[in-house]
Amino acid sequence: ETNLDKALEAIRNGEFVLVFDDDDREGEVDMIIASEFVTPKSIATMRDNAGGLICNCIHSDFCDEIHLPFMVDIMEAASEKYPELAKLAPNDIPYDERSSFSIWVNHRKSFTGVTDHDRAMTISECAIMMKEGRFDEFGSTFRSPGHVCLLRGADGLVKNRRGHTEIGLALCEMAGVTPVCVVCEMMDGETGQATSVADARKFAQENGLILLKGEDIINKYLED
Ligand code: 5RP
Ligand code: CA
Ligand code: CA
Ligand code: ZN
What we know:
The structure is a single chain. By secondary structure, this protein is an alpha+beta fold. The protein is 41% helix and 20% strand. The chain has a seven-stranded mixed sheet, sandwiched between helices. A two-stranded antiparallel sheet has the order 7-8. Strand 1 (17-20) and strand 2 form a beta hairpin. The radius of gyration is 17 Å and the shape is globular. The structure holds ribulose-5-phosphate (5RP), calcium ion (CA) (2 copies) and zinc ion. Ribulose-5-phosphate binds next to helix 8 and strand 6. Ribulose-5-phosphate is lined by residues 21, 26, 28, 30, 52-53, 55, 96, 100, 151, 163-165, 183, 185.
């Protein structure tokens, strides 16, 4: 059994997998979990052990169904009325061509939206809604702005973009679970930088988690 097989099994079991994207890219390790299995405990684990942004990645097929745009497209459209927004265009991201950011949402049953309970509800209910094909319920179930950032996976996933967004969704597809997943960057409070791969490996070993390189997932996905 390869590490990739073990990672796919972990994803199917609702466990975290750690993924280092690439030295040529962000150079970050994200904790990744399939959203349909997310509980308040999962959110607490990411707050305590990762500390980056907790984002919900959605497959482009689902995004098309719910008509979920990229934030850059919303801002471009809005710049007709608010011209300053055009000046904020993210045309200088140092590690990639495009951002996967979309809008921020909270489940309408949330109170503040930021608690472990509220974020887990927002994330898991979104995944289950996509799984069950209840696309017309998106706007009536969530409100925006909110405390969970939605990321829109690129069309064709890792064929067109090699971010954690697409890598996580590719893992879900290969594992046979709903392609909606949470990613959260591991941060190092000592250095003020991203957690090093060596430290992430130590964390993985101590916690029985699999750590993969993005490349290994991308190559396997492109093979199939
Ligand atoms: C959201 C991010 C993270 O880097 C996350 O991994 C998704 O981005 P990408 O697909 O670009 O890696 O910026 O917190
Ligand atoms: Ca990033
Ligand atoms: Ca608040
Ligand atoms: Zn990333």
